[in-house]
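Review form for a predicted model. The reviewer records the input and the model, then writes brief findings.
Reviewer: anonymous (R2)
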Amino acid sequence: MTDYEKLQQIKKEAVATGVALIILIIFWCAAGFGVSGVDVKMFNLPLWSVTGTVGVWIFAMALVWFLLKFFFKDMDLGEENTK
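Model under review:
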């Protein structure tokens, strides 16, 4: 893999990670604030606190799995002179 191809892969991974962050923030708002009006208790806590913490954590793990499976690529970033 050339230095240019490595740079393109790094850019692809960075953009995908940024998009995943935006998706996670939107999900956090929906899971926390979106269900705040629902009068349901889970583990003796309001539903919004469970979905806004544990739900977001589980969703973040799913996003990381998705990034690893479809975007990230294992590559050597060593000092080899490939052009």
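Findings: Residues 37 and 62 are 26 Å apart (CA to CA).
Further findings: The mean pLDDT is 92.
Recommendation: see findings above.
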